[in-house]
Amino acid sequence: MDDQNKNLILATALSFVVILVWFVMFPPPEPDPVAETPTEQVQTTDGSGSVPAVTADPPTAAAPGVETPAAAAEAPRIKIDTSRMDGSISLAGGRIDDLRLKNYRVTNEPDSEIVTMLAPVGSPDAYYALQGWAPAGDLAANAVPGPSTEWTQVGQGILTPTSPVVLEWDNGNGLTFRREISVDDEYMFDISQSVRNDGNTAVRAAPYGMIVRHGEPSDLKKFFILHEGAVAMANGELSEIQWDEIPDADVDPAWGRPAIVTNDVTEGWIGFSDHYWQSILVPEAGSTFDQALTYDRAADVYRAVTRLPTRTIEPGQTVTSDTQMFAGPKEWEALQAYQQSGIDGFVDSIDWGWFFFLTKPIFWLLHELNKLIGNMGLSIITLTLIIKAVLFPLAYKSYVSMARMKELQPEMEKMKAEAGDDRQKVQQGMMELYKKNKVNPAAGCLPILMQIPIFFSLYKVIFVTIELRHAPFFGPFQDLSAPDPTSIYNFYGLMPWGVPEVGSVMALIFIGILPLLLGISMFLQQKLNPAPTDATQQMIFAWMPWVFMFMLGGFASGLVVYWIANNTITFTQQYLIMRSQGYTPDILGNIKGGFKRTPKDAKK
């Protein structure tokens, strides 16, 4: 391999190392403290007939009719109980504001608390859903139920997949509001709200739905590879909006605050997305609606809102509006099923990233392999075998070309000696030599270049998808989305003291078993070829396996498993192909040569 190709490989590898060093030395900033949870109220309409914007008062301004944290805690509740969720619905506002995910725990410990999805006003990270009717025309604000209106449950019972619940509120002036809430076996709520007009005059109102978050989440990671914030689909176009983009939006006159608005959506959804969880509003199919992300700066409240057109309810008429709300983990199979049932692009609520054309098929294959094998670590190794098999024709040409270049090495050295300092003559002679022997010097770089997007795509899959969260391998490796839990610090569990905290500098220094195997596999793969003659390149290549070993030590252990398997398969392929071309790598000799001190004359 000539100097240009060596430089290309060196530049690629060093660029990767620089990226790793940057994110180790300059980690993402810690999230700011979450503001106190405010109370809220629905603003009255301006008579234009538009659905009103949502506003919030600071905690000290508990105006009449506005729910306070104490009122929320005292309000009657309806229990939610499914195989995957439990919680309750507050009759104050009829809000879904208490939800936990039975199948997921905060940590990998068996006695860890289950994950809290939604929380009521007054709780840290208050997070809940509201539905309602905004008054329009001459209809007064107090003629429709507000966020603090106490509903009455019709009948008894709890909300389960087989038993919906019905709430009702009569305004005393001829309008009866009714809300039926049902839930499926997964994570989708169906909310059907209706208005019956028993009065003598027609009234106008507009149905709306919203998801409310008080402040940014306290566990915000702010990592470059992960989207956290709002996510929306509008007429086939996906939008991912970071948390800080919503307050920075222009003030929308129709909403009276910073807002990112999309009007006239005929098919879509909107909500908030965390690392593994999300809450999404899906208005009824066939309706045209506006969707908006708003921010109340004074109260530090974010809202994802859907506004449907104003409806006229004639005397004796009942008008109904249906909305779905997803609240749960971003499980691929569940989202895929909802997408097939008619929710456009719902699988894309998972953050597949720029390389979605790689991350999607890689995840699908890994998911199917895990269903077949039943062990995510073995599935990653099998996935590596499949990827290497797909790339084998390219790798074969590369290794054959490298083997032939080894045969040309004596002629190349002779040519360099004869040309002396005339580099142009050396380059021309080498190109003629390559052409004569039908050798492509760039072929050795192609497998390395192909591995870079695959590596980052797999990193994205392991870091983002919930199927890898707390996925076990064997022994101490019970979470492939987390770094290697073993450490040289306690001699891999032989000593009675613990290991350094994950993510600390000590954890990067006292690496675990998997990073150590990674360094060894990369070192052996490198020793298939003699060290470069250039002293600087020789030193850099000699250090590279151990630099990667420490840099990748803090990465997800599933990614390190992939890299070890990739290095092992690459080593085997290259060794066998070189043997088939009549060149037997002197691995032991290359290792011994790598530890010899370079003579001063050779350096000059």
Automatic annotation (TrEMBL):
The keyword NAD is annotated on this UniProt entry: no
Membrane topology: Multi-pass membrane protein
Keywords: Cell membrane, Chaperone, Membrane, Protein transport, Transmembrane, Transmembrane helix, Transport
A Pfam family the protein falls into: 60KD_IMP
A GO CC term assigned to this protein in UniProt: plasma membrane
Coiled coil: none
Occurrences of domain Membrane insertase YidC N-terminal (ranges): 77-365
Gene Ontology biological process: protein insertion into membrane; protein transport
Known role: Required for the insertion and/or proper folding and/or complex formation of integral membrane proteins into the membrane. Involved in integration of membrane proteins that insert both dependently and independently of the Sec translocase complex, as well as at least some lipoproteins. Aids folding of multispanning membrane proteins.
Record-given protein name: Membrane protein insertase YidC
Species whose genome carries this gene: Pseudosulfitobacter pseudonitzschiae
Gene label: yidC
